[in-house]
Amino acid sequence: MKNITYTIFFCFTLLSYSQENYPTDYFGNPLEIGSILAGTFAELRSNHFHSGVDIKTQQREGLDVFATAKGHVSRIKISPWGYGKAIYIEHPNGYTTVYGHLKEFSPEIEAYVKQKQYNQEKFAIELFPPKDILNVTKSQLIAYSGNTGGSGGPHLHYEIRDANQHPMNPMLFGFHVKDTSKPRVNGVYAYSTTDSSQVNKHNNKVKLKLVKTKNGNYLADTIYASGTIGFGVNTYDQQDLAHNKNGVYNIKTYVNGKQNYELDFKKFSFSESRHLNQLIDYKYFKEKKSRIQKLFKNKSNPLSIIKKVADYGKVTVLESEHINYKIVIADFNNNARTITIPIIGQKNKITHTKEKIDSSHYVYADKGLSFDSENNKVYIPKNALYENTPITFKTIGDTIHIGEQTTPLHKNITLTFNTDKFKTEDTSKLFVSSLGYNNKPYYITTYKKGANIIGKTKYFGKFTLSTDNDKPKIRPINTQEGKWMSKSNFLHMKITDKGSGIKKYRGSINGKWVLMEYDSKKNLLSYNFSDKVHVSGENKFKLIVIDNVGNNSIFEMTFFRKN
The CATH number of the domain where 157 resides is what? Predict the structure, then answer.
């Protein structure tokens, strides 16, 4: 009984500790150089919140990366996309640290991974090493920094996750970045949130005029409003040693001194991350490529970063009422910028109304709905939309126009195209494409079912069936037929496909599979001669590349090497 009581007490203590207290001296620095950030925790990215911090590596690759605490490597993932080469370390205190965009792993980990890659004949791989296979100590070398995956430049992506694999702000754990300046403000906006509300005679979004005060804060011109309104802010933070426009840490709003909304960027879960699209003004983002964070919420928005909400963060303005609305934006170091907005209740004739979508279709967010034409069909599942929305649906031949690109989707919609009118031999080269600028087709996930070709996408827009009869292209970079390659460290090949895109590839030397790492940003395949699959003397190299509709290209050559 004593042991049971102790166990319950320990678990309760650990839970309380993980929720309220952060071990600020437990984790070290993953790099020897100082911490200058290219990206902060939970800053706004396309369709997601950034789940860690991006540490600059002085525009270099190959810097030593260290385990920030003792533990064991619990996961290793390699992909041409996302985090590229990444290591996950589970620590005795229940947290997990993540290190992404790595160039390569430390020798012990690299050997373990390569053995698995060759056993499975895969470059992209995900491994979960048993607990005692790859133990590490604090400050032990685990990898070298790089630029792999979806990285836009050399840096180290670093995360700290809790026991539920929810990413947390590393700053809470003593990770320090020099920051002595207040967050910056690009603009503040007022929204009429109902058809009958208004701000300065507008029933749509209005950008407010701001005056900077002596203390660096802002005072907006008085606005005249009626009904239920909300506000949004375009803001960013800038640390002392970087020019990057990074995310802020906290935003609070007050109505007559009483707090009615808070965005608190301490922690979130991956399952809720795409709801960022209803936190921001999505239409403005799609049109202007800039993000306004709304300081009010939809009823359907489950984001855990939204705290202390009163009236969904909205403000109801009555006739002749005087309201003092205040926004306080802060970074982690408590540098804060305040914006004060005087509001007077006044109902005027509305001169600017919301843009109306010309559509006879209306989709309720909590219900699924199908749209059908003679040969094509679109299915929008339940909860794919964040709110009830008028939807455009029209077809011209094999082209479907569904919804507007400025409307966000949370789930995949399904597009079905009937191919009865096509010759059987032609359907194998068809794929569903999204039509971009100048109607350029882009492959979306496609599969076939009977006489139908089906595509799935999380974006509205125009879609059609496209044909790809072109084979992928293969081009040798540093080799040619009959070349001696004794002085080369790598064999490089460039692969491209202008139609449906590359699906898979396979390289071999003398009939044996070889690991060819894929850099998707450069369309580059690389075989490392240190793998020693080749032999001394003559070697037969073969590369097969297949696109998403099955077109394939084969490249063969003989090279020579003296080991």
Answer: 2.70.70.10
Q: Are 530 and 136 in contact (CB under 8 A)?
A: no
Report how far residue 472's alpha carbon sits from residue 277's, in angstroms, rounded to the nearest whole number: 35
Does 8 reside within a domain?
no
Q: Is the pLDDT of residue 88 over 80?
A: yes
pLDDT at 554 over 60: yes
Q: How many CB atoms lie within 10 A of CB 540?
A: 13
Residue 179: inside a domain: no
| 14 falls within a domain | no
Residues 274 and 206 in one domain: yes
Tell me which residue of 425, 436, 424, 431 sits closest to 454, measured CA to CA: 431
What tokens appear for 250 in the block?
């906290």
DSSP per-residue letters across 536-549? SEEEEEEEEEEETT
Q: Which of 51, 35, 57 is nearest to 154 (CA)?
A: 57
How far is 224 from 200, CA to CA, in rounded Å? Answer: 5
- Cβ contacts of 512 within 8 Å, gap of 6 or more: 533
Say if residue 257 is in the same domain as residue 334.
yes
Q: How far apart are CA 32 and CA 68, in angstroms?
A: 11
Q: What is the extent of the structural domain holding 230? A: 184-345
Q: Which pLDDT does position 397 carry in this prediction?
A: 87
* CATH code where residue 555 lies: 2.60.40.1220
Q: What is the tens place of the pLDDT at every residue in 130-168?
A: 998 999 999 999 999 999 999 999 999 999 999 999 999
Q: Tokens at residue 60, please?
A: 């270099």
Counting runs of H as helices and runs of E as strands, what totals does the chain give? Answer: 5, 46
User: Is residue 18 predicted with pLDDT exceeding 50?
Assistant: no
Strands 502-509 and 512-514 turn out to be antiparallel
**Judgement on whether residues 463 and 479 belong to the same structural domain of the protein:** no
Tokens of 436: 């971009």
Cα–Cα distance, 252 to 256 (Å, whole number): 13
Q: From CA 327, how far away is CA 29, in angstroms rounded?
A: 34
pLDDT tier at 17, thresholds 50, 70, 90: very low
Query: Is residue 352 included in any domain, yes or no?
Result: no
**Same domain, yes or no: 240 and 168:** no
* pTM (global) more than 0.70: yes
